Amino acid sequence: MQIGPDVYPDYHFLLIAPNLGAEWLFDAAQQYWERYRPTVISNFRFPALIPPDRTITLTVIARRDIAEDLARQMLVTVPNAYYDPLTFDSLDEARAELNRRAEQSQPFGSPLSQPTATYDPNLPVIIPTAPPPPGFITVTPVPTISVTAPPPEEPINPTPGPITGG
To answer: What is the C-alpha to C-alpha distance for residues 63 and 80, in angstroms, rounded to an integer?
Structure first.
């Protein structure tokens, strides 16, 4: 099981430090997320559930004041993961680095030994379909006999009292 900055893992998580606002994800990391689609997490509990035989990379966006604490938490919680820290003090610095990684196809800061597939929304999606099993109804039957009620001869009026009497 190889793990490192040049190998795309089985699971890629993106953690935005708890002391950062949503703009760090929706503004700074937008292009990065659209390119690589990592699972966005708020703590290390979910990656700890991944079996140890699978490769995990945790990309962590944090300021310098909390980056070491997050690294220690990750080491205790998910010791088999590759830690990819992005420590910046300004939103613009983080945006520039994340956009660089997305544009240069370097999700973890260095070229991948095996490139990842690129998603193209213009390509048609072909979903293979199997024929339905015998006896499986695929169309709702339409009745062939049309029954219409004759028009009422007298108007229907409400009853004068309860049906049970009283």
So the answer is: 24
